[in-house]
Request: fold
Amino acid sequence: MPDSGWTEPRPTAVLILADGTVIEGQGIGAEGEATGEVCFNTAMTGYQEILTDPSYAGQIITFTFPHIGNVGVNDEDIETVNMAASSGVRGCVLKTDITDPSNYRATRDFDQWLRARGIIGLAGIDTRALTTLIRTKGAADAIIVHDRRGDFDLARLKAEAKGWPGLVGMDLAKDITTAQTYTWDETSWQWDKGYGRMESPRHHVVAVDYGIKRNILRLLADHGCRVTVLPATATGEEILAHKPDGVFLSNGPGDPEATGAYAVPAIRHVVDSGTPTFGICLGHQMLGIALGGKTVKMHQGHHGANHPVKDLTTGKVEITSMNHGFAVDTDTLPAGVEQTHVSLFDGSNCGLRLGDRPVFSVQYHPEASPGPRDSRYLFERFTDMMDAKG
Ligand SMILES: NC(=O)CC[C@H](N)C(=O)O
Reply:
């Protein structure tokens, strides 16, 4: 070991876990430091969508796929609605160095893009070892630091990592949501055409934005929905004042239990009105709470694009995209709330519906982006409910 105590070449970035573990590598993207929870994502494609998904606010993502950045970035594969705004992701950790972009859609280099978006990165580490550590000990609180000069005050940084309060109890949806109401009519990307516009709306949907992804809005538009997007703090009365045919509850970051002061009562009001309602991920969890259930923090969470889920209502298995660290505790769901989907990895709850009202939700991401398209039928279930309501 050299006199400095560091390995050579001297690290320009470190990831320090709350238990004091120091992982050294080379800095990429923005310089600076950020605290958050480290989770691992197993998707083999879609790093740009993942790093712009607002549900990752407060988290540092380590990718298990080794080659990240090799297809560059573009201005089309961004999931935050405000394209320039940060999604709130705190950092990223990669195995290999970023190579020159090789893809006809690439307009920019991944490293420059990370820097422009203020995302701090660490490359050149053993991401398999880090993933094993998270699988063994659970998602870890940490600080990620990138300093070109390699100047790290380890004692202070260890204290910062340890002092970060953690995601439990953290309300992040109200920080990431839109400040203003807006409407949406952009449809999905098509070969040679790019994104389109919805021509003839059949339904009016109010989507409550707790950290919504563009591809959810596009799929609603593909299914004939004219969408009005409201801020997370919209009350039940404000939502219904738009006279929606259906209400959509979005994905988002943070602890669902921490939204109890605003989102949960608003959702309860919407459900009581009998309006067709569909929730995804955070929206699913908050709906579960509004219906009388509870959520729990998971050991390591689910973040990837290959998670098998069984639809208990049809017996079919779908391969899904997932990104969650909390889950609805099935045992706490009251009578009248039916579990409709279950994870085939660990048996955790992946969906629910009401027997007496057109209300349902899923824990995973039928919009994928990135990920498989198996679960798109859920958007049809939603429009069928609105059709049935007339
Ligand atoms: N994608 C999401 O909506 C995530 C929901 C919640 N923040 C969780 O981690 O479980």
